[in-house]
Amino acid sequence: MNVPFLDLKAINLRQESALQAAFQRVLQSGWYVLGRELEQFEAEFAAFCGSRQTVGVANGLDAIMLALKAYGVGPGDEVIVPSNTYIATWLAVSQCGARPVPVEPVAATYNIDPARVAAAITPRTRAIIAVHLYGQPADMDPLNALARQHGLKVIEDAAQAHGARYRGVSTGHLGDAAAFSFYPGKNLGALGDGGAVTTDDDAIAAQLRVLRNYGSRQKYHNEVAGFNSRLDELQAALLRVKLATLAQDNQQRAAIAALYLRELADVPGLVLPQVPAWADPVWHVFVVRHAQRDALAQRLAAAGIGTIVHYPVPPHLQPAYAELGFQAGQFPIAEAIHREVLSLPMGPTMTADDAAAVVRAVRAACSESAA
Ligand SMILES: *Cc1c(COP(=O)(O)O)cnc(C)c1O
């Protein structure tokens, strides 16, 4: 039995007629950018997160970058980022002209280690970006406490964690502002690019609305050097359809994760995700670790099971960041994670049979590697 890593077509075809109706509505409206669909999506997503404001933007990278800009982060500033994250978290900082300052994760949860953050704070530090990696919320209370103590902003990178909860509170409502991506493969995915910032701060939301639209509040009057970073009417209308089933989709992911956690618990050499008592993850991906990761991936591929590595090279060792002068070995926890992680198939259209096929293949592959 073949199980793809993620079946986006199957996910979207479940709502084929509602998505087509949304397309027709936008087509017939004759209004394609910054209109009613976006306003309604923003209100609905704010309600979903429990935040006062949502500002739709063009993608997740822009969401992080614009949130930093709205708080005035710029050249000469430093922003604390996880050493273990997707490179977009770092790029958002660089695009503001600021410097990303990496901090290692807790190995068991993959998320930034609050106990290591204080040592990275300098007089230039302006913000901490807490990434809820793989759909697991970061440990927010100690991060927020440190930020208050040092006068920093906390920006959530919630691109992988729509609907995850930390001590009962939803992502998007756990820091000063939060950035979301609606890239097609995310838990809430558009049929193209999209993103949003959520915040309780009305002044920051107003600033974001200016920044995303050429720095203008009134057409052809530009207060600041802004950006063209808008969530268009079509994607907003499609996202409204998909938002309606997000909670249910996340529950289906949780059921698959529970099955994996139960059925793979005793596999020698395989490290499963650990969920702290305060975390309610949304399983954007289900990440296991294995010392022979590449061999495991090959055996699974041969058995028809799709996997992906999130991620093979940490940001500090990417050629794109050569200018920062980091060396291999400087962030050993992130580097070990990048050598050993493998994401198993995960998604809201997976069945218990699919998951059982993955379990059988993983058990067989791991007993081969132990032999
Ligand atoms: C996807 C992602 C982003 C960027 O989102 P885009 O919409 O692709 O720009 C940022 N951070 C993390 C952790 C992501 O997974």
TrEMBL record:
Top-level taxon of origin: Bacteria
CDD domains in alphabetical order: AHBA_syn
Coiled-coil spans in chain: none
Claim: Transferase is one of the keywords in the record: yes
InterPro entries per UniProt: DegT/StrS_aminotransferase (IPR000653), PyrdxlP-dep_Trfase (IPR015424), PyrdxlP-dep_Trfase_major (IPR015421), PyrdxlP-dep_Trfase_small (IPR015422)
Entry keywords, A to Z: Aminotransferase, Pyridoxal phosphate, Transferase
Residues carrying N6-(pyridoxal phosphate)lysine: K186
Keyword flag Acyltransferase: no
GO molecular function: pyridoxal phosphate binding; transaminase activity
GO terms under biological process: polysaccharide biosynthetic process
Active site: K186
The family this protein is said to belong to: Belongs to the DegT/DnrJ/EryC1 family.
Protein name from the UniProt record: Aminotransferase class V-fold PLP-dependent enzyme
Species of the source: Duganella alba
